[in-house]
Amino acid sequence: MIAYPLITDSHCHLDFPDFNEGLDDIVERAAQNGVHRMVTICTRLPEEPKVRAIAERYENVFYAAGTHPMNAAKVPLVTTEELLSLSEHPKFVA
User: Potential cystine with 42: which of 8, 11, 51, 91 (Cβ 3.0-4.6 Å)?
Assistant: First the structure.
């Protein structure tokens, strides 16, 4: 067996529809190939609960939440307090 270095995938989109089926397998294969941590990214704050749920489901998956500039006109504004409240979750990293 090949010894892989420990890798953090700092930007993945595990909530995208392409991954609805087989997410367990994707996360497991990543771990088997040296990806010991993954950060799944939320690109629209209203979708944050879905990304958070994925991070809660897997020990080695964390999440980041925000709104991509290309989506900014399509999502409601949030307050600084709302953004800061996200940081209270132990799996939230950015």
Answer: 51
